[in-house]
Design a protein that fits this description.
It contains six helices and six strands, in the order H-E-E-E-E-E-E-H-H-H-H-H. The chain has about 210 residues and is an alpha+beta fold. Strands 1, 2, 3, 4, 5 and 6 form a six-stranded mixed β-sheet that branches. The N and C termini lie far apart (about 75 Å).
Length: about 210
């Protein structure tokens, strides 16, 4: 099928074990029907030769847009069975991590758009994924903190309530990390511990004058 060949080339999927079967044009998106299959491997449990069993229920894997339409892949993965120890295994692919349904290329796009400061709701809409998926990717980021100095003014341009929650959680973790650098009886430790609610307050209601006891 010429269209199928064109789409598969466009997707640029390198795994030769993925066989594309059909393309279904829905009103709102494209569905690519595919299966993952290869020769049975050795049993990871006992080392015996496994045998092909059946296919899993298709995994719904979101993918990049093709020809201007949101696209997802319905991928059936081969299952293998060891008839010596009854161990079951599922075919794996470089397309997605084991036990995941978000392909690596989508995770890369999420990272790119977060760095570009695209809002989480926009990222979710553009990639046809849930906002919670974007938030999970944000939580995977490793932040490096320089506690030697802080800016005089801190502000955030946040578009969703979930985004606010994630930022507050991050600020709370940073506060605890700073606090634990000091002795519990020290002058520095006490205000950080006592005035934790200041982080959540409207900056217009804050005063530069307060007494730490």
């Amino acid at each position: 099928m010429e269209q199928l060949h064109f789409i598969t080339k466009l997707l640029d999927i390198k795994d030769p074990n993925i066989q594309f079967m059909d393309i279904i044009n829905k009103d709102t998106h494209k569905e690519i029907i595919a299966k993952l299959d290869y020769d049975a491997p050795s049993c990871p449990e006992c080392g015996s030769q496994m045998k092909k069993y059946d296919f899993q229920k298709p995994s719904k894997i979101p993918y990049l847009e093709t020809t201007g339409m949101p696209t997802r892949m319905l991928l059936k993965k081969r299952r293998f069975k060891c008839y010596h120890c009854s161990k079951m295994a599922v075919a794996e692919t470089s397309l997605v991590k084991k036990n995941h349904q978000i392909p690596r290329i989508i995770n890369q796009k999420i990272t790119q758009k977060l760095i570009e400061k695209t809002s989480m709701t926009d990222i979710a809409h553009q990639l046809s994924i849930s906002t919670s998926t974007v938030i999970r990717k944000l939580n995977d980021f490793q932040f490096k903190h320089d506690f030697s100095r802080l800016p005089e003014i801190m502000f955030w341009d946040v578009e969703t309530v979930r985004g606010v929650t994630v930022l507050l959680q991050h600020l709370s973790r940073v506060r605890v990390q700073i606090m634990n650098q000091f002795d519990r009886k020290s002058h520095e430790y006490k205000p950080i511990k006592r005035y934790w609610k200041l982080i959540k307050q409207d900056s217009r209601k804050l005063s530069h004058n307060f007494v730490c006891t």
